[in-house]
């Protein structure tokens, strides 16, 4: 049994009422790659940020080399040889690679010229890790993958014994990700412990020695590499079936296509949608399943008219509602619950009443009082129309957006993670409102990470992977979460059935 | 080339250098301030106060060096007001800079009345008995004071400081992102206060050179917008200390040219002719933007001031 470098003993972290990490215990050993796998909001980043000194633990203890760690900030963590690479880089794009490395290097001399031999050491790790990067290049001219390598060099320059990588492959192309997997194994080979926070099974498969699965703040499983099948891991990630009485309204007997996606394609630097075709009938609920980061967010923004299409069209009752050029102004007729509603769904500096009347305001109409009862109906707390949206808690912002979008009857609904951050009572309320819309004839496109809820509440399930629609399944009660999970991870339908 | 030609060129060169010297100090100071992500329109006021205090001290003590030092200090002290308003009270940088300018304008107009018509001991010329014997060099040296060489040295030092030293790197980092700089253990407020004071010091010195060395008189509003021109020239010099020198020399050359055209009896309104330096600099600015279109050299945190 190898020595533990870091040990978490029953660590809990609360943010107000929210329990981000619940009684987590695990250890990190020198020279191993430990993958911490979980969906968004599972608590994996919070757990590692506690180790890095960004948050203190509410309960429990973190041991470093067997003794209680005294880490009260990133500076302490670095002094103890713990480095972390975040999703958002801390490089200065206008400066050269060398200057960026010198900036965080504790041994930078006063005279930092190239001619000063005492500055040579700062480039050693760069030369090992990425000899193709010229240290004189300006960081903004590097690719995202190269910038990440520079970030990694910054961490290695502090003689890190433990490197924490937060979702490192989410910004990388597949080729860059493969190369990063190689670097990670190389680091582990040198005796450095690597904690890899990820929700991608590809990362786990490529380089993890041990796999920790987190779900809703708890560590649900720790296993050696190869001890679990992919489908088992996904099932653990997504959670055991919980008994929830979700019953969607019966599908209409005659199917009238209402919301039609024809060969929808869109492009973003890190993701592309490739020819998604889907027809949703009046009163039908289609759930979109997929591991996070497989194009669901782009699909939602394309359907909502936020992101322009590169090809294809989106029709609502036969009329195109898609944005085709970036210069077109599209006001979506859909009831649209966006991802991260605080950033994408409300104007923080406007009152609740004005936020409920945003579409009226956009058309130059005055905000009327007719939305006032929505706040009570959807339990927005406090139900004060004059309050600024920015003062609400995350869950209440979510409810505010849902009140606006589901408060009146819509022709079609696009809901992205509509229950994220809500308590059980609120979740029931959201689903009831969504199903009522469908019962009255709305076509519903519902993106969720909760496979159980999708299986319980949708008529058909579309599975997305790498920007494509890989399967469209009738949810006739015979679908199993394992089968859908397998499709999400890239097996074909027949393989999954086997 | 005839000897006469060389003599004329040398005379133009010296006139250009002397006319540009106050501007070089002010522009250099403002460049450093903007590199840490702060814009200081108070440069005009700091120059004016430097000119006034420098002249007053020069007259009172009879020592021009003491005058220059006093002027520089006055500029630095006034710049602390800008630092306090912007960094301490969170005031708008443009508004704060204008306030500093107006305060200096009012104060120097009021207290400077006693200085009008006074005589100041000038800086000694660089010429000496033995150099007078050398043709051309002797003439050049005899028309120059230490002010211009000091400006050249300041430019070289600032460029070296910013690009070759660790504190210089910290200054640049603060200008790009105070947040990331702080994450790397740098104290952005301390860096910014220091840079603003250095900027004020250089602007005050530039003003004092203007009154004590260049014109050797005091007149109300004698900087005539040079401090504001300095703020603009920073953009032309693309926030690089080394480019401050050619840009300021170009401005000085056009200024000298218009003055000499006027005295040569050139038929154009002196007011219109007076705009020539600004037009030339504007053309250079447009030209440099067209050439270097893809990359703006503006420090990232400075952009936030205008958003």
Automatic annotation (TrEMBL), chain A:
InterPro entries: AAA+_ATPase, ABC_carbohydrate_import_ATPase, ABC_transporter-like_ATP-bd, ABC_transporter-like_CS, P-loop_NTPase
Tagged with keyword Disulfide bond: no
SMART domains for the chain: AAA
UniProt keyword terms in alphabetical order: ATP-binding, Nucleotide-binding
Annotated GO MF terms: ATP binding; ATP hydrolysis activity
Keyword Metal-binding tagged: no
A Pfam short name: ABC_tran
Domain ABC transporter: 6-241, 256-491
UniProt xrefs under CDD domains: ABC_Carb_Monos_I, ABC_Carb_Monos_II
Family stated for the protein in its record: Belongs to the ABC transporter superfamily.
Protein name: ATP-binding cassette domain-containing protein
Organism of this sequence: Devosia ureilytica
TrEMBL record, chain B:
InterPro entries: ABC_transp_permease (IPR001851)
GO cellular component, one term: plasma membrane
Record-annotated membrane-spanning stretches: 65-86, 98-116, 136-162, 272-292
Keywords: Cell membrane, Membrane, Transmembrane, Transmembrane helix
Compartments where located: Cell membrane
Keyword Transmembrane: yes
Membrane topology, from the record: Multi-pass membrane protein
GO molecular function, one term: transmembrane transporter activity
Pfam families (alphabetical): BPD_transp_2
Keyword Cell membrane listed: yes
Major localization listed first in the record, in broad terms: membrane
UniProt xrefs under PANTHER family: ABC TRANSPORTER PERMEASE PROTEIN, SUGAR ABC TRANSPORTER INTEGRAL MEMBRANE PROTEIN-RELATED
Annotated protein name in UniProt: ABC transporter permease
Organism: Devosia ureilytica
């Amino acid at each position: 049994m190898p020595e533990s470098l870091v040990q978490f003993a029953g660590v809990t972290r609360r943010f107000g009422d929210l329990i981000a990490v619940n009684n987590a215990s695990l250890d990190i050993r020198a020279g191993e790659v430990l993958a911490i796998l979980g969906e968004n909001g599972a608590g994996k980043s919070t757990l590692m940020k506690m180790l890095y000194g960004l948050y203190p633990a509410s309960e429990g203890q973190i041991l470093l080399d067997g003794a209680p760690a005294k880490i009260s900030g990133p500076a302490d963590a670095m002094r103890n040889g713990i480095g972390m690479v975040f999703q958002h880089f801390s490089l200065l794009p206008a400066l050269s690679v060398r200057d960026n490395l010198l900036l965080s290097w504790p041994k930078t001399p006063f005279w930092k010229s190239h001619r000063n031999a005492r500055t040579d050491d700062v480039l050693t790790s760069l030369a090992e890790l990425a000899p193709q990067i010229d240290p004189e290049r300006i960081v903004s001219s590097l690719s995202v993958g190269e910038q990440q390598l520079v970030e990694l060099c910054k961490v290695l320059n502090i003689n890190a014994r433990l490197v924490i990588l937060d979702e490192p492959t989410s910004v990388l192309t597949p080729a860059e990700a493969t190369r990063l997997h190689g670097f990670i194994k190389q680091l582990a080979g040198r005796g450095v412990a690597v904690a890899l926070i990820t929700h991608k099974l590809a990362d786990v498969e490529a380089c993890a020695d041990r796999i920790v699965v987190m779900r809703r703040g708890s560590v649900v499983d720790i296993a050696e590499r190869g001890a679990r099948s992919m489908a088992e891991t996904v099932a653990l990630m997504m959670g055991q079936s919980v008994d929830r009485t979700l019953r969607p309204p019966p599908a209409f007997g005659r199917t009238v296509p209402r919301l039609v996606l024809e060969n929808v394609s869109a492009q973003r630097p890190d993701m592309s949608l490739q020819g998604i075709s889907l027809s949703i009938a009046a009163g039908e609920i289609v759930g979109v399943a997929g591991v996070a980061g497989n194009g669901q967010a782009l699909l939602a923004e394309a359907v909502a008219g936020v992101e322009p299409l590169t090809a294809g069209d989106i029709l609502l009752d036969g009329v195109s509602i898609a944005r085709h050029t970036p210069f077109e102004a599209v006001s979506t007729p859909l009831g649209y619950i966006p991802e991260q509603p605080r950033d994408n769904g409300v104007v923080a500096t406007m009152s609740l009443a004005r936020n409920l009347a945003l579409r009226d305001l956009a058309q130059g109409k005055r905000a009327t009082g007719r939305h006032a009862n929505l706040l009570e109906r959807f339990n927005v707390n406090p139900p004060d129309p004059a309050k600024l949206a920015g003062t609400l808690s995350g869950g209440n912002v979510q409810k505010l957006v849902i009140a606006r979008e589901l408060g009146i009857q819509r022709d079609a609904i696009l809901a992205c993670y509509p229950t994220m951050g809500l308590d059980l009572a609120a979740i029931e309320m959201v689903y009831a409102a969504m199903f009522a819309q469908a019962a009255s004839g709305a076509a519903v496109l519902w993106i969720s990470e909760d496979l159980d809820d999708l299986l319980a509440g949708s008529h058909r399930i579309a599975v997305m992977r790498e920007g494509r629609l890989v399967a469209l399944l009738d949810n006739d009660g015979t679908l199993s979460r394992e089968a859908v999970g397998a499709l999400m991870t890239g097996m074909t339908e027949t393989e999954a059935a086997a | 080339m005839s000897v006469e030609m060389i003599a004329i060129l040398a005379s133009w060169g010296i006139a250009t250098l002397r006319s540009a010297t106050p501007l070089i100090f002010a522009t250099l100071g403002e460049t450093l301030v903007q590199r840490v992500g702060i814009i200081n329109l108070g440069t005009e006021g700091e120059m004016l106060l430097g000119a006034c205090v420098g002249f007053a001290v020069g007259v009172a003590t009879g020592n021009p060096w003491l005058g220059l030092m006093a002027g520089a200090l006055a500029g630095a002290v006034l710049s602390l007001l800008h630092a306090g308003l912007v960094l301490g009270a969170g005031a708008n940088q443009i508004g704060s800079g204008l306030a500093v300018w107006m305060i200096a304008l009012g104060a120097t107009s009021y207290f400077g009345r006693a200085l009008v018509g006074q005589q100041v001991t000038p800086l000694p010329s660089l010429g000496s008995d033995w150099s007078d014997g050398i043709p051309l060099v002797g003439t050049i040296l005899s028309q120059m004071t230490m002010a211009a060489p000091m400006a050249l040295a300041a430019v070289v030092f600032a460029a070296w400081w910013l690009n070759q030293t660790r504190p210089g790197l910290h200054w640049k980092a603060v200008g790009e992102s105070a947040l990331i700089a702080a994450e790397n253990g740098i104290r952005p407020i301390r860096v910014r206060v220091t840079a603003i004071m250095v900027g004020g010091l250089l602007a005050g010195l530039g003003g004092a050179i203007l009154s004590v060395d260049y014109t050797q008189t005091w007149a109300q509003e004698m900087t005539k917008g040079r401090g504001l021109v300095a703020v603009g020239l920073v953009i032309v010099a693309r926030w690089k200390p080394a480019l401050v020198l050619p840009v300021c020399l170009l401005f000085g050359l056009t200024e000298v040219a218009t003055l000499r055209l006027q005295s040569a009896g050139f038929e154009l309104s002196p007011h219109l002719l007076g705009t020539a330096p600004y037009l030339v600099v504007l053309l250079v600015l447009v030209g440099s933007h067209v050439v270097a279109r893809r990359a703006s050299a503006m420090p990232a945190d400075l952009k936030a001031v205008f958003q």
